[in-house]
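[SOLVED] Predicted holo structure with magnesium ion

Edit: marking solved, answer below. Original request kept for reference. I posted the sequence and ligand SMILES and asked for the 3D complex as structure tokens.
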Amino acid sequence: MDKATKNIFFLGKGGVGKSTSSALTALHLAETGKTVQLVSLDPAHNQSDIFEKKFAEKAVKINTNLTVKEVDIDYWVKKYLSDIQFQVKRSYSYLTAFNLENYLDIIKYSPGIEEYALLMAYKNIRKKAKGVDYIIFDMPPTALTLKFLTLPHLSLIWLDNLLDLRNKIIEKRQIITKVKLGKKEIETDKIRNKLHEQIKDYREVKTIFEDKEKTFLNLVMNTDKLSFSESELIVDNLNKFNISIKNIFLNKYHDDFDISEIRNKYKQSGIQVLPASNKPLLGVAVLNDYLRALPAFIEM
Ligand SMILES: Nc1ncnc2c1ncn2[C@@H]1O[C@H](COP(=O)(O)OP(=O)(O)OP(=O)(O)O)[C@@H](O)[C@H]1O
Ligand SMILES: [Mg+2]
């Protein structure tokens, strides 16, 4: 994983302009010489319409500095479940008697799977994006986005408790097998090792999500009450998890709107104003024209 690569997430209420703002930011940063990968994590995948190009899991080059890809969430759900199946079979060999496949068919539809799959996709994207300056994530609807961003924190609480429990079990049963390997002693409790591995993994992601130098959250809103109140909900939820909003993207802005209320409310965040365009913001040429007409673009 390239630790220098920065994450930029675009989130906000449905239809406010997350995909458009992500695309504009990607083109802008690429124009300033940064290498950028724009990734759609939203199953609705608007980037194909915006760039007027077909995208998939494999990154497509837009220009020297910019590639775009769309994450196939169904693929990652299946991959996540088959990984679980593999681990369960390996760790609990006595369970092979019953048919795990049947259970997995049910688990596929249970709540909570999508965010785990998204996190798995995220880790894969970061691993593959070596040397990329910025990965820009066009995020899914708010509920899933919040679950995704808070998953490392919440999983660590679970894992710490599970590890505690496992340690107690091991202590009680006195089943720790110590294998001598030269001078090193290695504990061979597979479940405990797996828990340690997962804790390390989640800590790494959590640290990056909370790092204000590495992860920038851009909250997109319009000048209407509904997008304001959803934004407030997002900010309140994320604050509880030590994750803060870097910038507000006030999109579809009209001159007659008084921006001071937003400036007062989000004093800690930068504000990027994106005026309402009178023609559809579709195609690279139109987006570039729109960017050139902006008085300024906020620094990331
Ligand atoms: N500044 C703008 N001026 C005019 N139209 C805009 C602007 N920004 C976005 N739009 C239009 O508004 C619609 C929604 O924008 P977009 O798809 O970017 O939003 P979104 O938040 O990604 O939506 P979804 O929640 O469906 O993913 C699109 O038709 C888009 O072209
Ligand atoms: Mg979108």
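OP edit: The chain has one domain: 6-293. Thanks to everyone who chimed in.
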